[in-house]
Amino acid sequence: MEDGLGETYRGAVAAWECDAFGHLNIAFYVERFADAARDLLERLAARARWRDRGIAVRYERELRAGEALVVRSAVAAIDEDGIRLRHETYTGGGARCTIAEHRLVPQGAMPAGIVPVAALLQKEDFPVLDIPSGAGPIASGRDRVKPWEIDDSGLSLLGHLHRFSNACLHVCDAIGMDGDYRRAAGRGFSTFETRLALVGTAPAAGEGLSLTSSILAVGNSSIRMLHRMHATGDGREIAHFHQGGVHFDLEQRRAAPWPAALRARAEALRTPSA
């Protein structure tokens, strides 16, 4: 195709993959990108093994239960940090839903013969963000890694994303957007961008994890937050996850302005240096 992207996944959204707000949970988008990456790299370098380093996603359109979806992917760049893939998700009818930038490194030398698609070399949809350091003030997760969450990179992307998706709910609760409010007001949360960076040694099965979260910015209907994951045993940071989303009208399926009380609570919790 003209843009150099080829099909790497074809499937559909199952009802059980949708969250309480009626759309595909962000963890299952990223699970599909993980499958798409392996499909593409298997064709390009069948014997190579890869380790995920991070993935950034922009969510442009909801996907809901029963919708067909297709992922198209290509190699966008190769540099000293490894390989950068571009994924795009489309509905069965051809509407684009997401774009993603996926970074991986080979477990060994970079395989020969992998060539980036020239049309993608200059595409930079995710400029570098200034990420504040330190644990956040909101406790947002604590559990242990399950054996079935481990893949050839360690803790799978799905395993990371499920925890960060849950962390978002603890931030919502902290600002007063709890279950009672959401049910009474007919409101939910819809994510428009995420940035996952894997920064430390991947946790092993059985290892304990803890998460903390910070609020970075609050808009008319939007909020940006940062979640950090640490190992409970040695305290090392494993990953951080930037998430932007909106206060969401569940009937109209669109962003809704924050009520004054929720906005004030979010501003009070906002990280001052952000």
Task: Explain how this protein is built.
The protein has 274 residues and is α+β, with helices and mostly antiparallel strands. The chain has helices at residues 26-44, 157-174, 179-185, 260-269, and strands spanning 6-12, 50-59, 68-79, 82-91, 96-106, 138-144, 150-151, 154-155, 187-198, 208-218, 222-231, 237-249, 254-255. The strands form 2 sheets. Strands 1, 2, 3, 4, 5, 6, 9, 10, 11, 12 and 13 form an 11-stranded antiparallel beta sheet that branches. A two-stranded antiparallel ribbon has the order 7-8. Helix 1 (26-44) packs antiparallel against helix 2 (157-174). The longest helix has 19 residues, at 26-44. It is globular.
